[in-house]
Automatic annotation (TrEMBL), chain A:
GO cellular component terms attached to this protein's record: eukaryotic 43S preinitiation complex; eukaryotic translation initiation factor 2 complex; multi-eIF complex; ribosome
GO BP annotations listed: formation of translation preinitiation complex
Record-given protein name: Translation initiation factor IF2/IF5 domain-containing protein
Domain Translation initiation factor IF2/IF5: 183-292
Source organism of this protein record: Lipomyces starkeyi NRRL Y-11557
Protein biosynthesis recorded as keyword: yes
GO terms for MF: GTP binding; methionyl-initiator methionine tRNA binding; mRNA binding; translation initiation factor activity; translation initiation factor binding
Region (Disordered): 1-153
Entry similarity comment: Belongs to the eIF-2-beta/eIF-5 family.
Entry keyword set: Initiation factor, Protein biosynthesis
Bias (Polar residues) ranges: 1-12
Comp. bias regions, Acidic residues: 38-54, 85-94, 120-149
TrEMBL record, chain B:
Protein family per UniProt: Belongs to the SUI1 family.
UniProt keyword annotation of DNA repair present: no
Cited NCBIfam families: SUI1_MOF2
PANTHER family: EUKARYOTIC TRANSLATION INITIATION FACTOR SUI1
Role of this protein: Additional factor that functions in concert with eIF-2 and the initiator tRNA in directing the ribosome to the proper start site of translation.
Keywords: Protein biosynthesis, Translation regulation
Keyword Protein biosynthesis included in the entry's annotation: yes
GO cellular component, one term: multi-eIF complex
Name of the molecule in the record: SUI1 domain-containing protein
Source organism of the structure: Lipomyces starkeyi NRRL Y-11557
Domain of life: Eukaryota
InterPro entries associated with the record: SUI1, SUI1_dom_sf, SUI1_euk
């Protein structure tokens, strides 16, 4: 644990140092001026708080002093704590800027709140804010980052959640492509299904879908017929005509099974794969990770005789 | 294999995962559905282990699902149970609970 943490910290610290300074400047321009000038009644609170904070955040303070020039730190601290008290007055000004920032950090807020409760219980008593919503906002601005640094410095055991949050935050800022979602790659258009007459179903975009999956449409067709236990043909506009009545949802299920079986790579879940035939066996070769696995051929299995009994005998 | 590294000792990534070995030799039981005329369907159960008496299974299935059914003898596939209506999920439940057949050895086909 510790070794991992150490390896990560340098990058984290850089960020941590960058963000607060920017925000603090904003803060000073807005919030501090207000809290100092307009909120004289808030000032005594602040002072007491600062004292307590110095006790509470002995390690934390050091860090701050290291990170930013020492002088503005105390006011900033006041600002963030007094902000909560001051927020009532400052609301209109600060909300615009704060909300934007908040959106970025929504995921972290809950974690921060936990940490706040653990590390800075006194603050709630001292600042004496009524609004529960104001507090996380105000403190998140000024102290959120420092708070994180706070639990890094403290001796207690880091919880998994905290470390996970931290990891993803760092990953997201440093290389977002790794933290990005994967869902997008699998987009395959839904099958467009119509009824032809009473007993046949038309699957219009088979070609489109099989192109998207990089599979010959004959292969997909074979699978569909084997699974559905029917037969059919391809008409002039390269649409598939299936005997029997099927709904779009049902075909979607079958297609999903086809993709699971014959398209996605089991190792890396990518769909950029191709089927290679080697002495009568099919192999699924992944183009992104290079893994190979054998896939079973499409077997029709047992087909019950349906219809006239004469046909069955003949 | 570099087993001198401490971390690698606990877990061998090249070892077989186990589930491949078990499922490969055993034959799957295929449960299929076929459409008949109208909204009528047929369910076929293919590949039941030979040690079970197909007739008795069929009798139990027919009684449980309140449907008719037959045993069809196929040249390659042996005896296949045919049931009226869409009984796929119910058959699967029956096989896994009554006969203790693993669910991963049962394959349900169709829509």
């Amino acid at each position: 644990m510790a070794s991992v943490d150490e390896s990560v910290t340098p990058t984290a610290e850089e960020q941590l140092e960058f963000d607060p300074t920017i925000k603090k400047k904003k803060k000073k321009s807005k919030a501090v001026s207000f809290s100092r000038d307009d909120l004289d009644d808030a000032a005594p609170q602040d002072e007491t708080q600062v004292d307590e904070l110095t006790d509470m955040f002995a390690g934390l303070k050091k860090k701050k002093k290291k990170s930013t020039s020492s002088a503005p730190l105390e006011p900033a601290e006041d600002a963030s704590a007094g902000d909560a008290g001051a927020e009532d007055n400052v609301e209109d000004f600060d909300f615009g800027s704060q909300k934007k920032k908040k959106k970025k950090k929504v995921a972290d807020v809950s974690a921060f709140e936990q940490q706040l409760e653990e590390a800075g219980v006194n603050e709630e008593e001292d600042a004496g804010e009524d609004d529960t919503f104001e507090k996380p906002e105000g403190e998140e601005e000024g102290e959120g980052e420092e708070e994180e640094a706070g639990w890094l410095n403290s001796d207690r055991e880091y919880s998994y959640e905290e470390l996970l949050h931290r990891f993803f935050k760092i990953l997201r800022t440093n290389n977002p492509e790794l933290a990005g979602e994967r869902g997008q790659r699998y987009k395959i258009p839904p099958p467009s299904v119509m009824r032809e007459g009473n007993k046949k179903t038309i699957f219009a975009n088979l070609k489109d879908i099989s192109d998207r999956m990089h599979r010959p449409y004959e292969h997909v067709m074979q699978f569909l017929f084997a699974e559905l236990g029917t037969s059919g043909s391809v008409d002039g506009n390269s649409r598939l005509v299936i005997k029997g009545r099927f709904q779009q949802k049902q075909l979607e299920n079958v297609l999903r099974r086809y993709i699971m079986e014959y398209v996605t790579c089991k190792t890396c879940k990518s769909i950029s794969t191709h089927l290679a035939k080697e002495n009568r066996l099919y192999f699924l070769v992944c183009e992104s990770c290079g893994s190979r696995r054998s896939v079973s051929g499409i077997k029709t299995g047992f087909q019950a005789h349906i219809g006239k009994r004469k046909k069955m005998l003949g | 294999m570099s087993t001198s590294i401490e971390n690698l000792k606990t877990f061998d990534p090249f070892a077989d995962t186990g589930d491949d070995d078990i499922s490969q030799p055993t034959n799957y039981i295929h449960i299929r559905i076929q459409q008949r005329n109208g909204r009528k369907t047929l369910t076929t159960v293919q590949g039941l282990p030979v040690e079970y008496d197909q007739k008795r299974i069929l009798r139990a299935l027919k009684k449980d699902f309140a449907c008719n059914g037959t045993i069809v003898k196929d040249d390659e596939l042996g005896e296949v149970i045919q049931l009226q209506g869409d009984q796929r999920v119910k058959v699967m439940e029956f096989l896994s609970t009554q006969l203790n057949i693993l669910k991963k050895n049962i394959k349900i086909h169709g829509f």
